[in-house]
Amino acid sequence: MDFSKLPAILTPDLGLLFWMLLAFAVIFFCLAKYGFPAITNMVEERKKYIDESLLKAHEASERLENIKQEGEAILQEARDRQAQILKEAADTRDAIVEQAQEKARAEGARLLEDARVAIEQEKKAAIADIRQQVAALSVGIAEKVLRQNLKDDKAQMDLIDRMLDEVSTDK
């Protein structure tokens, strides 16, 4: 292949090659002195920012997990408290029912005793009434018998004498 027919840019001569190499070295030196440190600093800052963001995300995740655990603990405490309140309510209800039953028993006993007293009073009143009626009936019968037996004066005097004799012999 013949390189002489190619354009000069593709087959540089030694002078062009020297100046290109010198320009490359100057640019490389400028980039190495000023550009690469700036780029490296930016990359480091970006890396640091990403690391901090990951750390913050990890901390947020841990905080969220702690919040979830605290929430579950609070829920469990609320459930325990609810169970305790329900138990206390059931105990209170049972105590109130027991009190009501005891009060009802006492009221029933009092009413029964009042009924017994009323029955006893009614019984005594009935017995007194019967005695009064028997006494009135007895007096009425005795009056009729005496009227029949004591129709004349002689029968009345004999009865008085007999009674006086009985009274004097009893003493």
Summarize the topology:
Elements: H1 14-149, H2 153-170
How many strands, what sense, and barrel or not for the largest sheet?
A: none
Tally of DSSP helical segments: 2
Portion in helices: over 70%
The gyration radius over C-alpha positions equals: 67 Å
The fraction of residues in strands falls at under 5%
Key words describing this protein structure:
2 helices, rod-shaped, mainly alpha, 171 residues, 90% helix
Description:
- Helices cover 90% and strands 0% of the residues.
- The protein contains two helices and no strands.
- It is rod-shaped and about 205 Å long.
- With 171 residues, the protein is mostly helical.
- It has helices spanning 14-149, 153-170.
Brief description of this entry?
It is built from 2 helices and no strands. It has 171 residues and is mainly α.
